[in-house]
Amino acid sequence: MDVSNLLASHAAKFQSVTVEKETPLDVDAGFLTVTDLNPIDEESYKSNLEEYLQSTTRDGIQALIAALYALPTQPSPDGPLAQLPPPTTNLPRAKPLPKPKPPTKWERFAAAKGIQKQHREKKIWDEEKQEWVNRWGRDGKNKEKEDQWIHEVKANADVDFDPVQATRNARKARVAKNERQKLQNIARGQAVREERSERKTDIERTLASTRTSTASMGKFDKKLEGDKKMRGVKRKFDPTEASAEQEKSLALLSKLDGEAKRGRKDTGGDNVLNVRKAIRSVSRGRGGVALGREAGRGGARGKRGGKR
């Protein structure tokens, strides 16, 4: 019995695990991504899009799985786990690069003199003890003059002169000087940043004032490259139309004002009539607007009564 045809048809269902293409697939196991740089087969793409996408996806997944099986593994309760390598794809930063700090006074001096920074080890060899000791800190080399059993004292030194205390004070003075210089460098850098922010604020304030100087509040002005839209800058205009109550109140106020002016003119004095006091007296302390509203309501009632 010839079963070669059955075997061939069964083998055709299972594709090879090796993916061969003109341009090899770029596999980044660190990010679990596969990049296919091969051009699209236009004929296959247009004839059967679904089959073409499935074939392309299958090749990428097969290449990724083959790369994962080639990685070293470690045992775990859930089974062997592959140790992913570092990613090779460079992704853009989520935030901008930090601005460089301004150079310190020593860095500017070293750059001018051509001095290169040398790394100093924390340990230093002690010839007397024949061992490595700390350069600073506890039992440091910088304290050996304080701990030595004999000290050299000048002939004209005071009677109560303590060489150990003098050496300790000199060391603490050096530490305080370094700390003071560090704070000065920080303050100098902060001053530079504050100066930049103040300059930026002044420019924005000047730009805002120039925009608001036009009748359109800068709406029809020529925009600069990278110029931001001003917010909260609006020109308010009084409405051209007013309600009947508002018109009546304004008419009442103008009438009272005119009468007050005529009274001043007739009597020849300025303190004969107090307009505000008169309005408060007539409106019982509620003001001219309330008085105008009451007058409007009274007129409206009369009109409605007349219709009846």
TrEMBL record:
Keywords: Nucleus, Ribosome biogenesis. It is found in: Nucleus. GO terms for biological process: ribosome biogenesis. The keyword Nucleus applies. Pfam families: RRS1. Residues 191-205, 219-239 have a biased composition (Basic and acidic residues). Residues 76-103, 187-249, 278-308 are annotated as: Disordered. InterPro entries: Ribosom_reg. Residues 206-216 have a biased composition (Low complexity). Its main location: nucleus. One of its GO terms (cellular component) is nucleus. Belongs to the RRS1 family. Involved in ribosomal large subunit assembly. This is Ribosome biogenesis regulatory protein. It comes from Paxillus involutus ATCC 200175.
